[in-house]
Amino acid sequence: MTIFINLAPYTKQMDNCTQLLSRWTGGIEIMMDGPSWHEPVNWDTECNRFQNFKGPLSVHGPIWELNLASARYPAIREYSYEVYKECLEWCARIGAEHMVIHPNLYSTPLFSRAQSQYFAKESLKRLGEEAQKLNVVLAVENVGIREYALFDQEEYIRLYEEISTVSALVDVGHAHVNGWDIPSLIRSLGAKIKAVHLHDNDGQEDLHQPIGQGTIEWELIWSALHDLNHPFRAILEYGDDASLELLLEHGRAVEKKLLLNVGT
User: Which of these, 47, 67, 113, 122, could form a disulfide with 105 (CB 3.0-4.6 Å)?
Assistant: First the structure.
């Protein structure tokens, strides 16, 4: 198993991640938000930034200002689809193992939840087909807090029965804030899980704290992950204030914790 570190702490200044890239021997998850990603994106520059990194790559597709589930504005939905399609092509170019996608803009109210779900699913189906052509795994993340969540736990599980071309990225922190039964979620999704985002919180807000600083019962999570018998990517997704040394220390600790997993 390879442990990944998400580059969220470097979103505002991506040039500062060079020490992490030189010292970390696992994988990284590249965030496609921040000053480096303003339109028009210089795809060559962003490709060259990571060309000397020896570990595996994954990508977190852009979050802000995009919304596949917009029930009111078709133009926003279609523009979001085109942006994500272009991002998938870049993922294929750099050899990324997966691209994470949010099914909706998680800070936007859901005035017509059923419609928003329908539109999101239609776009995810189309993008999943494009991802398969490019040999990139498209991993759909559970996002949104309480009434801002597009899917509840059972709907999120059923999503992968409805759409066979996408996989699941279970965000443990988001699930905790929403009161989901995380071990049950992991076991129910099984082989549909291609990656997990690991971070902690107080059960009230999406704090992206280091593991152990919130109220998540991690031993139950580790046990459920150990029950998976297929390869998946475990990704630390800590907040802006996470230091380099903390990222490296926790990356090694998670690797040790999951080392006995049957999947490789």
Answer: 67
| Domain 3-258 bears CATH identifier 3.30.1490.20 | no
Mean pLDDT along residues 116-142: 98
* Neighbouring-strand partners of residue 193: 168
d(CA 153, CA 83): 27
Burial level of 218, CB count in 10 A (0-12/13-18/19+)? middle
The amino acid at residue 173 is: G
pLDDT at 262 over 60: no
- Distance CA(118)–CA(238), nearest Å, equals 31
d(CA 10, CA 76): 28
Q: If we measure between CA atoms, which residue out of 81, 80, 97 comes closest to residue 134?
A: 97
| Cβ atoms of 18 and 243 closer than 8 Å | no
167 pLDDT above the threshold of 70: yes
Which tokens hold the place of 95? 């050899």
CA distance 89 to 131: 8
233-260 exposure pattern, b = at least 16 Cβ within 10 A, e = fewer: bbbbbbeeebebeebbebbeebeebbee
Closest listed residue to residue 178, CA positions, set 228, 124, 141, 223: 141
